[in-house]
Amino acid sequence: MELFINQILSGIATGAIYACMALAVVMIYQAIDHLNFAQGEMAMFSTFISWQLMQWGFPYWGAFVLTLIFSFIGGIVIERVLFKPLAKAPILTNVAGFIALFAILNSSAGLIWDFTIKEYPTPFGSAPFLGSQLISTHQAGMIGVTVLLLIALYAFFRYTRVGLAMRAAASVPESARLVGINTSWMIALGWGMAAAIGSIAGMLIAPVVFLEPNMMVSILLYGFAAAVLGGLTSPFGAVIGGFLVGIIENLAGTYIPGVGNELKLPIALALIITVLVIKPAGLFGRPIVKRV
Amino acid sequence: MSAVQEAVTGAPAIEAVPKRAMTLGAGTSLIVLALLIVVPFFVKNFIIFQLTMLLVYGLAVLALNILTGGSGQFSLGQSAFYAVGAYTSAILMEHAGMNYALTLPIAGFVCFLFGFLFGQPALRLSGVYLALATFALATAMPQILKLGYFEYWTGGVQGLVVTKPDAPDIVQSALRWFHLKMSQDMWFYYFTLAITIAIYILSVNLLRSRSGRAFMAIRDNEIAASAMGVNVALYKTLAFGVSAAITGIAGGLGAIAVQFVAPDGYTITLAISLFLGMVVGGVGWLPGSIVGSAFIIFVPNIAEGISKGLSGAVFGVILFLVIFLVPHGARQVAMVAQHLLGRLKKR
Fold first, then answer.
1. Closest C-alpha among A220, A282, A22 to residue B139
2. Chain B residues lying within 8 Å of A225, measured CB to CB
3. Sequence-distant (≥ 6) Cβ neighbours of residue B172 within 8 angstroms
4. Where are the domains of chain B?
5. Which of A121, B157, B179, B263 has a CA 20 to 30 Å removed from the CA of A150?
6. A 75-134 residues with CB below 8 A of B?
7. What percent of chain A lies above the pLDDT cut of 90?
8. pLDDT at B172
9. Which residues does chain B have within 8 Å of residue A286's beta carbon, measured at their own beta carbons?
């Protein structure tokens, strides 16, 4: 029984990361109707930046905040320079663009910082949390930061003018434009925020999976699985999906024989395909209506 | 409201490619073919091996081209089909002791089934969702191959070693008359070339046939196609199956050429390379496949020679350049060249 609770708790902890990734994916999906395949690599790159800052002697939280700002600006720059001109292009062109970004970020991270695996510090320590053996302080910290982030995002979208404008631009771009919202910049803002959220996920998961250029590929896949499970049109669903995927991953790894720690990716694949086949809109998404 | 309208009036997944623009003229084809036959006599074995891989990847890119350029569906998961084909060939050769040439149709058939079955859930997905599902497949494939259940056959993380076939006795004795010897590499090159030509001709004919027209109708407008009586579900899965089958044969050939299969040879990087090859060669232009394939073989070699890990960055930058400058890839370049030549002739 203790093993079961333990697995659920650590599932929630990793689920927090998947929730962040899923949220980042959904934010861009909402804004431009495309899945950002480079989201994980963007997060990985940001994490390397924060690592580099710490190597230069910045304290953890200083590096954390600087990385957030860097990622935010980086996300906006990428949108302005590379993806704004592609807004009207066919889907294939956009997918190719994301793939290109994926390759560039992955390979330049390897060039700059080498492909060796690096240790990444945690600000929370790894002692048992509150004296219990169930989760470590870092895992508790992961959950805590994610929850704070979610509350902040909720408040942003619910109570600020910019948040409202972003929601309007995402759901009815034409009408939003008519009431004077600069929809084009709202998309850029969405990219910036998604990049920043992704970098938080990267910095939180790096102490667990260690820092290396390929660290986010599998996490991105789980992020996708979470987004699909929760519904690509629902940020709330994406977060719930993230926690669910984290729990499912841990339970399957523990209780299904043959699915060791190293072999969890097929679970994400199975999950994505199952959801897409049974309920393509996800748990909380709205179905896409097509008029013929 | 807007979402509904966009779904109907929005641009199709890829830009339409006219059917006639999909192939090369007879003269150009013959020149390319002659070059492919003659070149191996003048180069070293290692280059012959690279040329073999050029044809192998060319086949894989061609397969993706049929799927995307033909029926308008995406796949970032071609590496998975390639892996299944490679493993099928390797397992049949090493465990069942089967002749290498016989394993290829089996690899193709297994992949056809795999692709057809994977096409069933993919059927409900379009655009980004399909890209997502296939991306997941490609990412998960190396881990599936490592699974303990299959370790007896797949060799787990270590993979399998495949023996390279010698040229058959008839060929060797015939060559002895001319005091020539044929190396394993050279024999396998011509073997691959023959298969490539056969599949290329089949593919061109497929796209010209009733099925090919159905693919293209689905690509250009799915709703209109179904209204005209095209069985959309059948043809979409069929496109997946055919594409997977060709990729599987390419995988089998690739496994024999490099004499080795291992899970880490078939990661998402391979799928990305094949996708890149298609975009560079021009989506929907079959001869472009070989251009794209040359690109994904030689560019990394050059880039890795300069610095380890550089190839990804070079790939990405070139991909962006292609997207922004020549969105139709090599096809566009070829068209411009043809146009210029035409003007020169007139003078």
1. A220
2. 136
3. B166, B181, B182
4. 15-346
5. A121
6. 82, 85-86, 88-93, 95-97, 99-108, 110-111, 115
7. 21
8. 78
9. none
Q: Which residue, A184, A185, A167, A168, is CA-closest to A176?
A: A168
Of A90, A260, A288, the CB nearest to B3: A288
Question: B89: which strand partners?
Answer: none
Chain B's closest residue to A292, CA to CA, is B8
> So what's the pLDDT on residue B163?
82
Phi/psi at B160 (nearest 5 deg)?
-125, 145
Closest chain B C-alpha to A215 CA, distance in angstroms: 13
Report the alpha-carbon distance of residue A261 to residue A251 in Å, rounded. 11
CB of A46 within 8 A of CB of A262?
A: no
Measured between alpha carbons, how far is B250 from A206 in angstroms, rounded to an integer?
Answer: 38
Residues B26-34: contacts with CB within 8 Å, 24+ apart? Answer: B29/B287, B32/B287, B32/B290, B33/B197
pTM over 0.95: no
Smallest CA-to-CA distance from A95 within B127, B134, B11 is with: B127
Of the residues A26, A33, A81, A107, the best mutation for testing chain B's interface (the one with the most B CB atoms within 10 Å of its CB) is: A107
Q: Look-up: residue for tokens 């008839």?
A: B170
Domain A2-122+133-278 has CATH 1.10.1060: no
pLDDT (average), residues A158-181: 87
Work out the average pLDDT over A182-206: 90
More confident: B8 or A29: A29
Q: Do A224 and B135 touch (CB under 8 A)?
A: yes
Q: Ramachandran region of residue A36, left (φ > 0), alpha (ψ -120 to 50) or beta?
A: beta
For chain B (length 347 residues), average pLDDT per consecutive 10? 39 58 70 84 86 94 91 88 93 87 92 89 73 86 79 79 81 77 85 93 90 89 88 88 94 92 87 89 85 88 77 84 82 80 76
ipTM of predicted assembly, 2 dp: 0.81
- Smallest Cβ–Cβ distance between B128 and the set A35, A82, A108 belongs to A35
Residues found in chain A: 292
Please answer whether residues B281 and B290 qualify as being in contact, where contact means their C-beta atoms are separated by less than 8 angstroms.
yes
Which amino acid, B226?
A: S
For range A54-78, the mean pLDDT:
93
Residue type, B68: T
Question: How many angstroms separate the CA atoms of B42 and A184, rounded?
Answer: 57
Determine the pLDDT at residue B8.
41
**Using CA atoms, how far apart are residues A64 and A70, in angstroms rounded to an integer?**
10
Lowest mean per-residue pLDDT among A28-32, A229-233, B103-107:
A28-32
Mutation for testing the B interface, residue in A34, A42, A44, A99 having most B CBs under 10 Å:
A99
pLDDT of residue B254: 93
User: Residue B4: what pLDDT?
Assistant: 38
